[in-house]
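Section 5.1 Outputs to date
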Amino acid sequence: MTALARPGGEADRAVDRARIGTILDGRFRLTSCLGAGGMGMVYAATQLSVGREVALKVMSRRPSEQASERFLREARLASRLSHPAIVATYDCGQAASGELWIAMERLHGRSLRQLLDEHGALPVSRALAIAEQVAAALGSAHAAGVVHRDVKPSNVFVLDDGRAKLLDFGLARGETDEVSLTQSGVVCGTPAYLAPEVALGRAADARSDVYGLGVLLHEMLSGAHPFAAATPEAQVSLALNAPPPRLTEVPAALAEVVQRLLARAPDERCPSAAIAQAWLAALRAGHRPAVHRPRRWPRRAALAIVPVAAAVAACVVAIAVRRHLAPAAPVFEGSYAGAGGPGCVRGLARLQIDGDRVTGSAVSALGPVFDIVGSVRPSRAILGVITRGDHALGSFEGEIRDGRFRGALEINDGCVAELDLARMR
């Protein structure tokens, strides 16, 4: 595990102030700090050759090889995309100091996250306008073979003139990505906005982005996340086990569209961002979109299923009773030591495995506490994600052998730690 620097710390602010007014790579004059991201800082800057205002994402001076590749992959994928609702990427490179940078379109406004935090639920007309633009951006990305994988309010920027832009393709996956960077079963994204299939370790596809759009639209219309809970782990659990709540304060046609975007099973979800955009455009024009609902059983077939359903219900009750009487879920605990990143340290980890669900935590020797949530795959491999707050910081994998959990965890900055946890009960 790694000890992550807290954004906005005194040391970070001092460094940021010292850099303002300096020139990076002989090309960009840094004018102010816009914020901190998982891989570095974002500055407002002037591109000296053309006098253009840009947002300059600058990576840490000591990135791991994998973190550097992820950073450059973001630039490559984003440069393939050209759409009015996607932030434009102008150029990327590496300074003589070793810092990697990406120059992007400078935007003026605020994130959708800030807008929701300040105002709560948005008027239906405004929510539809923003959602339609995000759907159009996703449709364009999907047509170019790019899946965003992190659709959430903080990655949508609302300009002062009301237009919306989709940001941050740092977790995006292209059709030709190398397996080492996008292994199936490695959970990527923000836990609260993960599609259920992704939370279970399956590969994200265009329909996973559609689910993120549905969460975003629900939040804009209601002012609350559809699966509000105290922790990211609890939100993931609700998304996996509970149907999405139906909106009652909006037109029925709009509530139906939100339900289809949030369908738990990908095959029952709106099949593409382009179709979602068409539905949203129809709603904005005052029409009822042609939302195709799952096929219903004919009455005669339904009657024939009743005995089978009764038998299944009896089996479910029997299983529930067995689980109630079964021993407590096994718990594994132990220490770990990280390597490969500048902040890697020692710490303690704890996992609980309850059926096919994995939860736990890790405590760094330097203080930060991280949450762990994952699942047991049919192959019996155990896969999951490392989180802190509402941010996914890395992944873990392993298996139970000889009464111990053995595996590894990896943080996005390149820190890797071996896990060898003893069973405590």
